[in-house]
Amino acid sequence: MKKEISFLLNGERRTIEVSPSEILLEVLRDRLGLNSPKCGCDRGDCGTCSVMINRKTVRSCLILAIEVEDQEVVTLEGIMQNGLTPLQESFLKHNSFQCGFCAPGVILSTTELLAKNPHPDKEEIQEAIAGNLCRCTGYSPIIDAVIDLVK
Amino acid sequence: MAIENQFEYIKVKNLDEVFGLFSRFKNPVILAGGTDVVEFLKTGTLQPNVVIDIKGLDFLKDIRLGNNILWIGAGVTFSELIASEIIKEHFPVIAEMSKTVASVGIRNRATMVGNICSAVPCTDSGPVLSVYKANVITASQMGERKIPIEQWFVASRKTALFKNEIVKGISIQLPEKKQAGCFVKLKRYNGEDLAQVNLAILAFEDYSFRISFGAVAPTPVRAMRIERLINRMKIVPELMEKAKQLVEDDIIPITDIRATKEYRLHMAKVMLERGLNAALDRLNGGGPAYGTSVI
Amino acid sequence: MDEYKFVGKSSVRVDGKVKISGAAQFIDDLDFGPNLLYAEVVESKFAHAIINSIDISEAEKIPGVVKIVTGKDFPFRFGLYMHDRYIFAQDRVRFVGEQVAAVIARDAVTAKAAAKLVKVDYTELTPVLSVQQALGDSPFLIHPDLKDYHHVPWFFPQTNSNVAHLRKVRNGNVEEAFADSDFVLDDVYTVPRYAHCALEVHGAVGLLDHSGRLTVWTASQSPHTQRHLFAEALAPLGFQHKDVRVITPFIGGGFGGKAGVSMEILGAALATKVKGNPVKILWSRAQEFYNTYQRQGVVARLKVGVKNDGTITALEHTLYWDAGAYVEYGANVVNAAGLSATGPYRIPNIKIDSYCVYTNLPPGGPYRGFGYSEFLFGLESHINELAKKIKMDPVEFRKKNAIREGDRLTYGSKMNPNGLIEAIDKVANEIEWGKKETSSDPNKVIGKGFSLFWKAPAMPPNASSSAFLKFNEDASLNILVSGMEIGQGYLTVLAQIAAEVLSVPVEKIRVETPDTDRNPYEWQTVASHVTWGCGNAVKQAAEDAREQIFDLIERANGKKREELYLEDECVRSKVEKDFSLPLKDFIISGIQKEDGTFRGGPIIGRGMFMPEFASALSDPETSQGGHPNVHYTVGAAAVKIEIDKQTGKVKIPKVVLAVDCGKAINPDLVNGQITGGILQGIATVLYEDMRFDNKGKLINANFSDYKIPTAMDIPDEVVPIIIEVAQPDGPYGARGMGEHTMIPAAPIIANAVEDALGIRIKSMPITAEKIALAVKKKRED
Description:
Structural class of chain C: alpha+beta
Distance between the termini of chain B: 38 Å
Strand content of chain B: 15-25%
CATH class of the largest domain in chain B: Alpha Beta
CATH architecture of the largest domain in chain B: 2-Layer Sandwich
Helix content of chain C: 10-25%
Shape of chain C: globular
Number of strands of chain C: 30
Oligomer: heterotrimer
Number of strands of chain B: 14
Structural class of chain B: alpha+beta
Shape of chain B: globular
Strand order of the largest sheet of chain B: 4-5-10-6-7
Largest interface: A-C, 50 and 54 residues
Strand order of the largest sheet of chain C: 3-7-1-14-11-12-13
Number of helices of chain B: 12
CATH topology of the largest domain in chain B: Uridine Diphospho-n-acetylenolpyruvylglucosamine Reductase, domain 3
Number of helices of chain C: 17
Helix content of chain B: 25-40%
């Protein structure tokens, strides 16, 4: 029942054998060595498992690995292959993150937002990251960094 | 948490393949967005022997308006509904509802058809499709069926779908009369939440109304008594009060972890009043922009 | 005027880049190779039951199962302040979810499947699910052996009861004072349990190698304390402290929940059963909710007397804490709260009784605020009501009774320097206190609420910090400490302190997460004390290094040390303007003399800080005579809310919080604590709502039904105000503030609700539902 699938992962064509019951989050972390997507709740409630499939942010804990055959998967590692993005630089400068556990998910959600809306207002930013729970920051330092970037 | 149960996975290329799999396998499960299905696979609530991925069926991704009929394919996600110009212009209450579902990351995968197939009492799509008098189009080896939405929800988590059938999509007749509407969703806070109560309203230019409540009965309920009371009437304060009273007759809320019966009943009345006012204001060119919560 | 070059600046965090690039490693990111085993626990489904037998025969047969372990394998008690807890339940279980056995297998799926096959036979006992039940007539004793438990000398278990500890504070004569008061207000306030909900769950990996070396990687705030408790608990197996090593990577939030030892001991214990193999145990989100420390619930009765002129005469505060099945850590919450349950007020007559009560619910423990968040809801609500009764402005009332430097604390010592009055004035000004506002929407009302707050670190009197500081060839340096970066920015603050002393810029300083083998002792990263305690140790280490540098220059170059100073990573002279020796020229290699010999060598600094004035010993009946708290951090907060009277929903246009942190070493980080903490506090009062069923099972152990704030739930405006009244014994005057920002949240909201609606709600959470139905009821009455 295992199947060999091929897909684009952070711009590189990868081929692996997966069993249908394997979850994308676990395959990315345990078999493909990408640690940025995290397991915070395993139910799609917290957003720490976020990755991008075909440029859209999704919850990798609710996706079977086998579903990404022939798709384009991007994780935080892929976003910054050429160094920190201007978005990340802004987060850095603003000291936006504290424990850092939610950061990969937030960065992906914000990256998706800016790709379709280069000048979001505060409410639009809030909506974009509403699915990324953060217990440390109170969110405003994250939002301020994005507003500063797009102004 | 890996899935304990083992199953086959097939990404189908056409509907006939689906029907073939239905006859080959005892326990098939259809997979579109997966935000419900994968969770159920992980918890063991679903233990299929085959998972049939329909995301490869392009024709299920359509949002089309033709001959005054809107077609939403089974593979259309909530994000796509929000982004669709057709929906925004002609069926704004669908977009308004879609924006309240979970969060962006879920909406990028979750489908409206998936939402009505899981048929939980707090479904957000249910009341909206109810007031638009949608039809659920199913397909099987035997052909297609057109199931009116009021027959679709049978009980909590039970639909009219037969065992060897698949939902192709939803069709909605574009209302002839000019109309406006409102979707109101009561949550415990602004963030992602399942509805404690939800409500969809359409107000037509002849002041007839369609009103459907969710999360206050095992299935979405059309508030027929209230509609009969206010249809083609000017809703003066006394009439509004009477309408709010009738809420008690049209819904049967329960107390559960999300809210008490008492609060649900109280809020259903508040939501009815504010929803009707917003729908009427929008009908007359004003009112809050679609996507603004009235509660 | 810029007094300092590095201290007081909002430097970019030293761990910023590693976190933003996703390179930061948390416990579940560490790779332990193909031999890693996985453990899954078998949990009790009863809140209170005797374990008759455990049958592992079926589970053992599953291929891939390596070992199954039960309580018999580890009959050892452990705990931080009290030894009342077990690695696995022994003869009985005391809360739903308590671990009774564990399966270790080659993969996680097998471990889980096999765990389901372990059969446990129980005899159910009546669960004690409330304080009332626990204290009622002939209650079931949850810990019948209470009198045999080791505990710190300043705990007072009440034997033959479910009271694990009773902290009594007495000063003056409250009965006389009440009789003498113009008004006495007596009321009861109820605060339920809460969950930390750090985004990262608890986890541990243990490895006992064949040489007898036990290494445990844990997501923990307290590596040294963990090592100590592991070594203590497993001493019967022959371990010495030196054989036990704890390594803690970055953690995804702690908030107190990852302090002490809860599930991490499983990593250590299980490792001893599978020698040579690393074994990992990672909690699910559900277990994170029901089998880690919870914030204890409390029912508090407050009786306070006032004079018409606004003077508070007496306070009687009786607190009954629902502390859960094991109180080895939670009993100190009860203790700390008891000692400070007057709030930051001068009150001459005091009677406080703080009861730590066992119940068959998950163990209570440390949570940001450590008892102060819990009791301040009642106290500051009560203060507001008192002000109303004597028709005095609530802020004026607070200001009149606010504690000042030198005032007597509940236990007799003196209050430290503090900016409480300044905080009150600034907050009142910012929230426009006194200006009544109305909403343009007829359905909505606006209210404002005010609260003071205070907290002292709750620690043993000898909690200590130490630091090593070592230079590298290029004069960059490493600071080795065992405090934990839990998000608060602690590593950065230490770097800034060292930078200030040594003139090495923050970007050239590395501070890493600790390894107990390499990094010197730190008690725990809790109590908002590491900036103060470890900051002092690091400052000392930096000064030690500086002294060695000056010593060396004096010896080797003949300069007088009093004339030397450090600037721009060079040693310079106040008298010789041209003298500028770069640190990198000698900091490792030493200074070469004309004859080719060298002086000096690698410069290593050493620092240690332990307060020598604190003492937990006092009169057990009155708590008088000790000095249990090193100092208090104070502040004030206020909120403006807009309530929709029909829906009960609360919008927050503005919240203001001023905290006296002595010296903000990094203002950005202080503001970060204010913004994050106040939201976490607001969540407890508006929508976090833990629900247990009538058998003691937590029924909303997930984020779908235990709601924590999202980006859509933030106040419109958060105004942080930094007050700086120096802490004399703090590094550059700093004192801690990380917990404090959460503490006033509940009372400011409760007071604002009362201001807006005239309705006083005395139990948390104050949900939209509670408000809407209260408004409805008030209208109907």
